[in-house]
Amino acid sequence: MSHASILIIISSLCMILAAYVFAKIFRQPENNQQRSRQLDGLRGILACAVIAHHSYYTFTWREGGSWGANSLIIINLGAVAVSLFFMLSAYLHIAKIRHSPNMDWREFYLSRAKRIYPLYIAVFLFVIGVTLAFKPLNGDNFGDFLRFSAQWLLFQNTSFQGFQSHLIIAGVQWTLVYEWAVYCILPLIHMIYHRKITLQPAALIALALSYWIIMYHSQTRYFWLFILAIPAAVFAKPIQFLLQQFPRSHLILLILLTGYIFAYTPAYSWEQRLWLAVLFAFIANGFTYANLLNYHGLSKLGDISYAIYLTHGLVLFMWFGVWKMFAFKQGNFVGYVAHLPVIFGATFVLAWLGNRYVEQIFWRRK
């Protein structure tokens, strides 16, 4: 059996068990009409895919020194997950703009900062502790440490004195650069859609920042993923009609399309982007994989997906890198994946704690 097959089977079992446990613990679903349960369920699955993806990358890194994989399916566990996360974010913010003719941009950016930064800073403080344990701070490297800290706060993948600190969290912070770039360009989209100009200082500053990020700190290919979420909103009615009229046909076709995307499309290629745009348009408008995405346990995993995204790398790094709970350099992949239930379980517990005692505390502050 291939590494990809073993990884997917074990990771799927971990996700199923976690979703079952979460469904039992959190019995009462949130009655929030503004949220789409299938999108929360999608978040939960994507977060688990990212754990599996980086678990394999950790194995190849510890075994041979390279951060990557030769299997297209394993690569796409990360690429497809990130792509759909980007599309999902764009779709939700487009919906907000369409239904909000009057936006308080200062309040919007404060809410985004309170959503993203508290847990990120908590994780960053942990990263600093680990980094300085390997590379002690002194007078000679203090300037480098300040630059290192500033780059981290701007979501840059950076090292300190040759120590690859970004891999402590599996290098996931790079995606937040694109999230913030899109947040910053939203005032322009709002002005175009509602045909009115805003001179709110927060909006003007954000637009200036969007230019700086897009021109100097990002790659254009990733922004297409946000743009390709637009068809999900524009063609909502015809897609919903198709879903209602041909339930069995669309189920078979979209399951086949999902398999094709993971197994045969190169990561972040135009082929993959376009097929994902089609798939996401159907999911956003009610496709649930025979009600799988509506399962309450997956929705609860989706609720903590950001915390999962930020903390799973910590668990992998500490378990295998600091505590050295597995002997590498022996090619024992089956023995390695036997640790995945611990990795998934510890990640979910840590993510729930981070969500409950860091994220939610700041969400509730006015």
TrEMBL record:
The keyword Membrane applies. GO terms for molecular function: acyltransferase activity, transferring groups other than amino-acyl groups. Keywords: Membrane, Transmembrane, Transmembrane helix. The keyword DNA repair does not apply. Residues 38-353 form the Acyltransferase domain. Pfam families: Acyl_transf_3. InterPro entries: Acyl_transf_3_dom, Acyltransferase_3. It comes from the Bacteria. The chain crosses the membrane at residues 6-23, 44-61, 73-95, 116-134, 163-186, 198-216, 222-239, 251-268, 274-294, 306-327, 333-355. GO terms for biological process: polysaccharide biosynthetic process. One of its GO terms (cellular component) is membrane. This is Uncharacterized protein conserved in bacteria.
